[in-house]
Specification:
The chain is of the alpha/beta class and 161 residues long. It contains five helices and four strands; from the N terminus they run H-H-E-H-E-H-E-E-H.
């Protein structure tokens, strides 16, 4: 019986507190970048605590699904200040609606952590990542041409996106 099945059994037998404790047991961590992965980040940067844009489509649902199996740590350049971390948490609470809170048999997004720095993790989900495979160091042109998924690629020859 896996952890989720055991938690379901506890919940059905009238022990929801024990079920939630089982669900929260130590799991692998998935580290998720905030801007460009969760927050659509279409408005130019203002400051660490101003987060004006809506979520990337499907991001909140994916996050809720992921937190059921993994610990989730959100990190960002905003994480350097307590106001930035507080703003990200408030943004998540606003956009998550009812799935922010725990429900019988399900963890809520209130269980997501907001790390002050890049946390140790099984995997990092980031819109500005370069996948290094051991011998594929990026060239300077590749670095200059890398763009987040929602910004397009820049053509360095003529400077156009």
């Amino acid at each position: 019986m896996d952890r989720e099945e055991y938690a379901d059994k506890l919940a059905l037998s009238g022990e929801p507190e024990k079920a939630m404790a089982v669900m929260k047991e130590r799991k692998w961590t998935v580290a998720v970048d905030f801007d460009g992965v969760l927050h659509s980040y279409t408005t130019p940067w203002l400051n660490a605590h101003t987060i004006p844009d809506p979520p990337v489509p499907g991001a909140i649902e994916w996050l809720h699904s992921t937190v059921q199996t993994f610990n989730v740590a959100i990190y960002s350049t905003r994480s350097k200040t307590w106001r930035g971390r507080r703003a990200m948490k408030a943004w998540l609470k606003k956009h998550a609606g009812n799935i922010y809170w725990e429900a019988p048999g399900f963890l809520g997004l209130e269980d997501v952590t907001f790390s002050a720095e890049k946390p140790p993790a099984l995997v990092y989900v980031d819109d500005r990542a370069y996948r290094f495979t051991g011998d594929n160091f990026p060239t300077q042109d590749e670095i200059h041409n890398l763009r987040p998924w929602n910004k397009g690629r820049k053509d360095r020859q003529n400077g156009k996106p």
